Amino acid sequence: MLALLLMALATLGSSWSGYQAALWDGIQTFLLMDAASQSRDADEKALTANGQRAVDGALSMPETYMKAEGYWPNSSWPACAPSSSRRSKLGWPRSR
User: Fold this and answer.
1) pTM for the whole thing?
2) 87: CB partners within 8 A, 6+ apart
3) How far is it, in rounded angstroms, from Cα 38 to Cα 88?
4) Residue 56: what pLDDT?
5) Side-chain half-sphere exposure of 51, counting CA atoms within 13 A
6) Angstrom distance (rounded) from CA 1 to CA 9
7) Any idea of the CA torsion for 82, 83, 87, 89, to the nearest 10 degrees?
8) What per-residue confidence (pLDDT) applies to 48?
9) How sure is the predictor about 28, in pLDDT bands with cuts at 50, 70 and 90?
10) Distance (Å, rounded) from C-alpha 77 to C-alpha 89?
11) Strands, DSSP E only, in the chain?
12) How far does CA 22 lie from the centroid of its chain?
């Protein structure tokens, strides 16, 4: 009789462990899906930010070039002219 009771408790414990494992596996699956979704969102935002950074860099290149070459720093691209020190070196404005 005692052996039968012990076998029943072992079977019940094993079944309960299987149920709990399946339950927690389901919860972990949903948490893993949420983490993957958030990771994809973060990757998308990082790619967008890198693209915007590349566009900003490309748009600032003419301004950087003008400043490095001594052109007016506040002039708008492409209507720019050399600074006064560069005008004399370049002979600008050139006579026709």
Assistant:
1) 0.45
2) 81, 93
3) 59
4) 83
5) 6
6) 13
7) -100
8) 93
9) confident
10) 22
11) none
12) 35
- Which residue type, as a one-letter code, is found at position 48? T
pLDDT over threshold 50, residue 96: no
Length of the chain: 96
Phi and psi (nearest 5°) for 82?
A: -65, 155
Classify residue 76 by its DSSP letter: P
Here the tokens at position 77 are 């691209």
Q: Are 56 and 46 in contact (CB under 8 A)?
A: no
Distance (Å, whole) CA 50 – CA 4: 68
- Cα 52 from Cα 60, distance rounded (Å): 12
71 in helix, strand or coil?
A: strand
